């Protein structure tokens, strides 16, 4: 791939990127969130079209307009969410040959016996011992992943992209996957391996490419690199963002969490947030931060553990209980969960306080507009009128609406889940200011983020989450970005 | 100028269209635009409007209630039998069917909100059950004054005079069901625009997860919406019995399509693109005007369905072309 550029709605995502993979090598593609890895791989697999640049294979240049084009050329991708690429109620065989069945490469008459045999042969190559007749929905996650790999073997892939394949796997399953990756390599297939876990990268990869801010920083042989060098390359040196940190008096604990467990992603979390304190929970994508915030807000059920507000244990069966208890969540999926995009700024802001602005069930239009105008002025929400639909606001202003709606409630603890995602630099500063002011008012803030710089700039205490548990805690000023990334990616393996 | 004309057309297109249809019929038939015919039209749509308000409420929370037609049927025969078979006082005659309508709504809500069956499937199943119940209850007979009973005797009761007045009487020269309909339209509109519960329903329908994460008790809100839908359908059934003066089997069957059509035509009124009470009312008016006018022009009743369907398609096409264009 040479000189690849791509921008979305005028915002450049990739800028003149060169990238090459050899047959029969495992090549790691690394970078912080938003560095442009996924965009680059989506261009390679045909999901996006590049604005500029060329893709060459064995001297011939290609232009991929659709995933089908790049599959024809022998490039296959196994996405992180395996369930999106498999049909759960069909058999393993049918899923392995899905691409073939979807096109006219098979005969119209399907000989199932023969297909099952072929599938069996492919499965044995990667050492997967499930029946080809088994249904996908009965398989485990790692088995599903292997079925996807079997599919690309059946398609005689030349290049394979594995997008964070190890994130959901256990150590044992990871070992098995690495064995298969070596097998692919020996079969002369070029493997592109995307991972956040550096130890894995050093264990299995031949070469490493690091990306940052839509550009390629370096490509080196693995032997010539060490973990510190890679981390430095990923984070860059020019990371100088201003964080307005307002002084706040820290008081008694408002939120205490003990032994909280929920599903596979929250596996025993203890934490405490005091009045006026900003506690950041950092971790990579998939560490369980969003899940943690949802459990704390009663949006998902907790399997075990206690949550206390001001020392009183509370039972949170629904978000409505959490709001009653004094907890507010500003969720990560702003446009889906934080605000209602087809409703006005006015109606969004007043949603949690409908009760207090109504008498005998009738809403007071004056009180509602007064509250909305107070928030619009106080938070600096840029909107032409209160009746503007929130869909037409910028990301930062939408986020301010998602925050502002809670300011009329008796909230003691604010949970922010990636509040600066998709927010421009100016609005980010505003949001940091707002959070700082809330802390000054004696609120407890739990700030969940994968942006380490924000955690360092903003938080009084930083907790590092990895695989559903808090693995490390730092006080303000104790840690560097390198420390955070180190514990966030290595997690338990380091502690063990 | 062009920039202003297009949104204007989308916003008021439906109302202009209704105006043009009325103008067209008025010119074709001098009797059409008379007080008695216009009140006739309003009276003919009053029952459908009640049912359609119920359907609007279920759509408002992003659900759908297909069981309203069956609920109308059940409520109609129930109302009639309470008088003809059991000679109940008027209060009971009015309250019991409404309570039964609420129970049907609760059943829908149980299936949809608690057990999480998709709304269309759940209310379709309930539609079957309720249809079956109302036929089993009457053993397949329509209910009328002093009807013969299966055991050879005649039923003791007749339809109450006061009750019949609800559907047939006039107040200050206006048919009483029209007054009831207008009151219901205004009340429902006020409910959605000015009350907390109405706002909660709209927000739940707008995005259930976002509403839940704002602390709304969305399950309760959706349950109430289905109960309201059942109640409005049962009021429709009561009015039907009162209007006809008997309890007809399967009276509500055509009501489902009629009311759904009114609601969806209502989507295009003021280019709302979502269920709204005023729109629903105008949708019902348009359908009523079409039936009335076409009948006067001696168009066969089975052809009017083709025209009604086409108008519905037109309204939906205009609305959604407009909405999809606005999105991009």
From TrEMBL, chain B:
It is a multi-pass membrane protein. It comes from Cohnella silvisoli. It holds the Pfam family BPD_transp_2. InterPro entries: ABC_transp_permease. This is ABC transporter permease. It is found in: Cell membrane. Keywords: Cell membrane, Membrane, Transmembrane, Transmembrane helix. The lineage of its organism: Bacteria, Bacillati, Bacillota, Bacilli, Bacillales. The chain crosses the membrane at residues 12-29, 41-61, 68-86, 92-113, 120-137, 171-192, 224-245, 251-270, 277-294, 306-323.
């Amino acid at each position: 791939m040479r000189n690849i550029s791509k921008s979305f709605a005028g915002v450049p995502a990739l800028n003149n990127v060169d990238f090459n993979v050899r047959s029969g090598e495992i090549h790691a593609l690394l970078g912080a969130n938003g560095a442009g890895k996924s965009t680059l791989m989506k261009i390679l697999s045909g999901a996006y079209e590049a604005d500029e640049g060329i893709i060459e294979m064995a001297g011939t240049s290609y232009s991929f307009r659709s995933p089908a084009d790049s599959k024809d050329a022998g490039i296959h991708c196994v996405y992180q969410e395996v369930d999106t690429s498999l049909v759960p109620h069909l058999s393993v065989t049918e899923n392995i040959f899905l691409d073939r069945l979807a096109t006219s490469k098979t005969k119209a008459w399907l000989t199932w016996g023969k297909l099952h045999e072929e599938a069996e042969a492919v499965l044995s190559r990667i050492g997967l011992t499930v029946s080809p007749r088994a249904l996908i929905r009965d398989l485990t996650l790692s088995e599903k992943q292997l079925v996807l790999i079997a599919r690309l073997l059946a398609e005689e892939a030349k290049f394979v992209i594995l997008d964070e394949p190890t994130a959901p796997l256990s150590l044992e399953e990871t070992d098995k996957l690495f064995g298969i990756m070596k097998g692919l390599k020996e079969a002369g297939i070029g493997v592109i391996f995307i991972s956040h876990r550096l130890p894995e990268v050093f264990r299995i990869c031949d070469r490493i490419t690091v990306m940052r801010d839509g550009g390629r920083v370096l490509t080196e042989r693995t032997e010539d690199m060490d973990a510190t060098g890679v981390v430095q390359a990923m984070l860059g040196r020019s990371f100088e963002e201003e964080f307005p940190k307002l002084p706040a008096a820290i008081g008694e604990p408002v939120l205490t969490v003990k032994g909280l467990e929920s599903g596979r992603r929250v596996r025993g979390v203890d934490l405490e947030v005091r009045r006026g304190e900003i506690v950041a929970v950092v971790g990579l994508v998939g560490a369980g931060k969003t899940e943690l915030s949802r459990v704390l807000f009663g949006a998902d059920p907790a399997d075990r553990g206690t949550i206390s507000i001001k020392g009183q244990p509370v039972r949170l069966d629904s978000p409505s209980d959490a709001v009653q208890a004094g907890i507010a969540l500003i969720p990560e999926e702003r446009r889906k969960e934080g605000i209602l995009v087809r409703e006005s700024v006015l109606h969004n802001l007043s949603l949690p306080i409908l009760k207090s602005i109504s008498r005998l069930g009738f809403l007071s239009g004056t009180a509602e507009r007064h509250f909305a105008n107070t928030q619009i002025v106080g938070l600096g929400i840029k909107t032409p009128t209160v009746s503007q639909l929130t869909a037409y606001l910028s990301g930062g202003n939408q986020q301010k609406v998602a925050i502002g709606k809670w300011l009329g409630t008796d909230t003691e603890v604010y949970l922010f889940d990636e509040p600066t995602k998709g927010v421009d630099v100016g609005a980010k500063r505003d949001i940091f200011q707002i959070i700082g002011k809330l802390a000054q008012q004696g609120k407890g803030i739990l700030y969940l983020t994968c942006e380490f710089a924000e955690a360092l700039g903003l938080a009084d205490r930083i907790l590092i989450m990895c695989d559903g548990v808090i693995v490390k805690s730092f006080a303000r000023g104790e840690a560097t970005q390198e420390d955070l990334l180190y514990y966030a990616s290595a997690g338990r393996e380091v502690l063990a | 100028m062009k920039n202003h004309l297009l949104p204007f057309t989308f916003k008021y297109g439906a109302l202009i269209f209704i105006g043009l249809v009325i103008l067209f019929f008025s010119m074709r038939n001098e009797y059409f635009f008379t007080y008695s015919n216009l009140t006739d039209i309003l009276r003919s749509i009053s029952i459908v409007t009640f049912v359609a308000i119920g359907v609007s409420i279920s759509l408002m929370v992003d659900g759908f209630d297909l069981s309203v037609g069956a609920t109308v049927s059940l409520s109609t025969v129930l109302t009639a039998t309470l008088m003809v078979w059991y000679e109940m006082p008027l209060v009971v005659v009015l309250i019991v069917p409404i309570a039964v309508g609420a129970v049907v709504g609760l059943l829908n809500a149980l299936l949809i909100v608690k057990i999480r069956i998709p709304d269309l499937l759940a209310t379709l199943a309930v539609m079957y059950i309720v249809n079956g119940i109302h036929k089993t209850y009457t053993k397949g007979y329509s209910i009328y004054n002093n009807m013969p009973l299966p055991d050879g005797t005649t039923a003791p009761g007749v339809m109450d005079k006061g009750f019949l007045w609800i559907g047939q009487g006039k107040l200050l020269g206006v048919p009483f069901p029209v007054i009831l309909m207008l009151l219901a339209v205004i009340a429902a509109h006020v409910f959605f625009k000015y009350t907390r519960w109405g706002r909660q329903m709209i927000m739940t329908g707008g995005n259930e997860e976002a509403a839940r994460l704002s602390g709304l008790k969305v399950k309760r809100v959706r349950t109430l919406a289905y109960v309201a839908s059942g109640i409005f359908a049962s009021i429709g059934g009561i009015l039907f019995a009162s209007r006809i003066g008997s309890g007809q089997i399967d009276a509500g069957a055509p009501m489902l399509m009629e009311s759904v059509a009114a609601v969806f035509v209502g989507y295009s009124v003021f280019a709302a693109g979502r269920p709204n009470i005023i729109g629903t009312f105008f949708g019902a008016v348009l359908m009523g005007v079409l039936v009335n006018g076409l009948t006067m022009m001696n168009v066969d009743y089975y052809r009017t369905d083709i025209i009604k369907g086409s108008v519905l398609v037109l309204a939906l096409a205009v609305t959604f072309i407009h909405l999809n264009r606005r999105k991009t």
